[in-house]
Amino acid sequence: MDRLRVAVIGVGALGRHHARILSEIDGVELVAVADSQAERGQEVATRHQTRWVADYRDLIANKTVDAVSVVVPTVAHRTVAGAFLEKGIPVLVEKPLAGNVTQAKELVELARRTKSLLQVGHIERFNPAFQAAQKVIVSPKYIRCERTSTYTFRSTDIGVVLDLMIHDIDLVLSLVRSPLRSCEAFGVGVMGQNEDAAQARLRFENGCIADLTASRICPTVSRSMTAWSATGCVTVDMHQREVKRFSPGQALTQGTPPLERVAQPGADLEALKKEVFGQFVNIANEAVETTGPDALSQELREFVQCVRTGAAPHVDGVQALEAMIVANEVLQEIATHRWDGHPHGAVGPYPRTPFLPKKAG
User: Fold this and answer.
1) Could you tell me the CA-to-CA distances from 182 to 135, 204, 333 in Å, in that order?
2) How far, in Å, are 51, 76, 202, 216, 333 from residue 161 at the CA level?
3) 243-299 per-position pLDDT tens digit
4) What percent of the chain has pLDDT over 90?
């Protein structure tokens, strides 16, 4: 394969960036962009010196693509991504994998049957702060995640669980590596028929607990994670790209315990307070790579590399399906917690699906 012929399906707010990045990757030819809105599609095609097609199916019929990036509304993921997978064409589809678990399973099965690459755009796996943090988060026992943003009037076909929270569900699953045991959740819709704010507690078979908060009606932006384990605590700011690690200091593990010291006659309480961080608790700023390509560029470059070499991506269809199954449990729990008197409290219903099967080892 000399030049990889790639097309982008859907060039809205995010898809246009897919087109830009793919057009700049060595060895890749952006052969077309497909979009039902002519003005938008033609504008992006002209900017990147390619052609616009109104119907993505023309690309399949004319056999003009080797791989595609699908950036259409979630409700169309099954139809559009599935059409290319049916023909054995590798697909990168934006998260979430599909609008519901049934459709997600169908896409995974299609990829398996046709032996086609199915990569899913869980872009936070490429966030340099998370990449640095996962090296020092070992066997977490408690994780807290917060993801908030203002209302963007995008992704209105899905609620905040599939829009935002699924990022953290995927990250937590990648760290915990244990089947889900139970889920508690509640949420509320404000702007429409889907939930716009949600809270979930996930309990895993290995004892880890994860609390997830997501809101797309918040005046401030936050993308944070805190993970506790036997070796200490790691805080991750994925927005500011900062990682801090808190661990017991030598004065705590080998010296006189601080509570014993404060109980001694003449103990200097103010001096002990100053020793908490630095003596009793060490603070380390983990190195975060901030000079390399942005997360979306890394994701698309990985897609191209996987198509060329057959390597496995960070997030394939199976992993994305696991996140979908957990997200569906959250949605089902939200649907059972009605907000009396609130017109948008009763979101759902969502069909319950079995918890993730236990993994070997």
Assistant:
1) 27, 7, 10
2) 35, 18, 13, 10, 12
3) 999 988 877 778 788 787 778 888 888 887 887 787 778 899 999 998 889 999 999
4) 76
Could you tell me the two tokens for 53? 């097609």
Query: 187 and 334 in contact (C-beta within 8 Å)?
Result: yes
Query: Alpha helices of 150-216 — where are they, by DSSP H?
Result: 160, 166-176
Strand extents, DSSP E, the chain: 4-9, 28-34, 51-53, 67-70, 91-94, 118-121, 142-148, 180-188, 197-204, 209-215, 222-229, 232-237, 242-248, 281-285
Question: Residue 201: what are its φ and ψ, rounded to 5°?
Answer: -120, 120
Instruction: Give the list of residues 6+ apart from residue 205 with CB closer than 8 angstroms, or none.
Output: 178, 179, 180, 181, 358
Task: Read off the pLDDT of residues 27-65 as tens digits, 9 standing for 90 and up.
Answer: 999 999 999 999 999 999 999 999 999 999 999 999 999
Q: Which tokens go with 255?
A: 């010296």
DSSP H helical ranges for 139-229: 160, 166-176
pLDDT tens digits for 304-313? Answer: 999 999 999 9
Cβ neighbours of 124 (radius 10 Å):
22
Domains along the sequence of the chain with CATH: 4-123+294-313 (3.40.50.720), 126-292+321-336 (3.30.360.10)
